[in-house]
TrEMBL record:
Its EC number is 2.5.1.7. Residues 7-404 form the Enolpyruvate transferase domain. The modification 2-(S-cysteinyl)pyruvic acid O-phosphothioketal is found at C116. This is UDP-N-acetylglucosamine 1-carboxyvinyltransferase. Belongs to the EPSP synthase family. MurA subfamily. Cell wall formation. Adds enolpyruvyl to UDP-N-acetylglucosamine. It is found in: Cytoplasm. Phosphoenolpyruvate binds at K22, N23. It comes from Paenibacillus gansuensis.
Length: 430
């Protein structure tokens, strides 16, 4: 198993381009199976989850190539709507194939999706939405078989603005007969990106980005060339890392409008941020200020996917901060790991009480999930001494070679695979 070895204490500096968004690219790749022919999807990062999605697409009959952040995908020979169990369990986003395959074949077989262990993560809203469009779903042993000779448009009200359920229903509804409305839809930028992609294939969707999405069914879709939006969570992660190391960096290829709530929180923590078009410069040269109360909520509020990273900054603040997690009940696993590095945090009733300390200290810690892992890397970059982050396959799900990103920004960080241990050996010999 690979590990990251980090020698902390160096302020980050330099300029970096933000890669494409995992959470936009994954549903877009899944949606591509609805149009037969060759698609070209640009700005697709080279991540574990993307590889898993491409593996699933290959196994059901697509031809795929991923080169220099561009995926070329021929969906002409898709011959099955049975998603392989071993790959389905490797990530949450395998569920995104449910709507598109149902729309193309009138049938789909799935298993329980995998993904970060950050909460119960049911799929009931996905299933209820597809049933409202006319699908019949039966459970047989450990798989779900979903059938609909013809999907029919419906008015669907989501009990909660689930990102994944909104996307799955949108994709299935594209080929349904008649009009579908999704009320209380999630409003994340990745949903707008999916709408743009689907409309580029010939779909008729309006409203993504608001809480009501309307989809007029069409009978034919054609392949297209499309470029994925930049990853707002990667951008937010780097902004926090710059501030936590008391450095200053410039991010290119960012949509600042997607980061409004995150920038608001960072500014309250004393971080200096300048925006110029799609460029953000971020820096912090003093101890961060505590932030009284941050609550994670659906977009446009503060994102759960940045909760653990921002917590690291608040661990170093001059006072007490409170973070409330309302999306995933199991998303505080990084707290124990940060405590090993000297953080002073207690958790009660879904809120973390963070008493700032002057410094964190290097330790061996474990990435329990994707964003928890990113938070530990930031903590390691800011800490005094050497940090080893284990279980980094979680981090590889969402960051395109995180060690190279931070090396580019001047950090001393190295990936150590079982075969090579140069940095650790060098540091131990000092
Ligand atoms: C690939 C992707 O885009 N992942 C993002 C997506 O995940 P994902 O689409 O899984 O997140 P959802 O918005 O669906 O989940 C939010 C909440 O709703 C619950 N829920 C969801 C579906 C359902 O059928 N039943 C149900 O109860 C979940 O357990 C969770 O408590 O949005 C999350 C919330 O912004 C982000 O953290 C993830 O990074
Ligand atoms: C939770 C995340 O991803 P997923 O929904 O794919 O598990 C994430 O991107 O932080």
């Amino acid at each position: 198993m690979d590990k990251l070895v980090i020698e902390g204490g160096k302020p980050l500096s330099g300029t970096i381009r933000i890669h494409g968004a995992k959470n936009a690219a994954l549903p877009i790749l899944a949606a591509s199976v609805m149009a037969e022919g060759t698609h070209v999807i640009e700005n697709v990062p080279d991540l574990l989850d993307i590889q898993t999605m491409l593996n699933i697409l290959e196994r059901i009959g697509c031809k795929t190539e991923h080169r220099l952040q561009t995926v070329t995908l021929d969906t002409s020979d898709v011959h099955t709507a049975h998603i392989p169990e071993d790959l389905m369990g490797q990530m949450r986003s395998s569920i995104f194939l449910m709507g598109p395959l149902l729309a193309r074949f009138g049938e789909v077989q799935i298993y329980q999706p995998g993904g970060c262990a950050i909460g119960e993560r049911k799929i009931d809203l996905h299933l209820k939405g597809l049933e409202a469009l006319g699908a019949e779903i039966v459970e047989e042993e450990n798989r779900l078989i979903c059938k609909a000779a013809q999907l029919t448009g419906a008015d669907i009200v989501l009990d909660f603005p689930s990102v994944g359920a909104t996307e799955n229903i949108m994709m299935a509804a594209v080929k349904a007969e008649g009009i579908t409305t999704i009320t209380n839809a999630a409003r994340e930028p990745e949903i707008q990106d999916l709408q743009h992609f689907l409309n580029s294939m010939g779909a008729k969707i309006i409203g993504a980005g608001t809480d009501t999405i309307t989809i007029e069914g069409v009978s034919e879709l054609t392949p297209c060339v499309y470029s994925v939006i930049p990853d707002r969570i990667v951008a937010g992660t780097l902004m926090v890392a710059a501030a936590a190391t008391r450095g200053s960096i410039t991010l290119q290829n960012v949509n600042p409008g997607h980061l409004t709530s995150a920038m608001h929180v960072l500014k309250r923590a004393g971080v200096q941020i300048a925006v110029d078009g799609d460029i953000i410069t971020v820096g912090c040269h003093t101890r961060p200020k505590p932030v009284e109360r941050i609550v994670t909520s659906p977009y446009p509020a503060f994102p759960t996917d940045l909760q653990s990273q921002v917590m690291v900054l608040l661990c170093l603040a001059d006072g007490v901060s409170i973070m409330k997690e309302t999306i995933f009940e199991g998303r505080f696993k990084h707290v124990d790991e940060l405590s090993r590095m000297g953080a002073d945090i207690s958790v009660d009733m879904g809120s973390a009480f963070i008493r700032g300390v002057p410094r964190l200290y290097g330790a061996t810690v474990e990435a329990t999930d994707l964003r928890a892992g990113a938070a530990l890397v930031i903590a390691g970059l800011a800490a005094t001494g050497i940090t080893v982050v284990e279980q980094i396959h979680h981090i590889d799900r969402g960051y395109d070679r995180i060690e190279q990103i931070f090396q580019h920004l001047g950090a001393t960080i190295e990936r150590r695979s079982p075969a090579s241990q140069p940095l650790l050996r060098r540091l131990n010999n000092q």
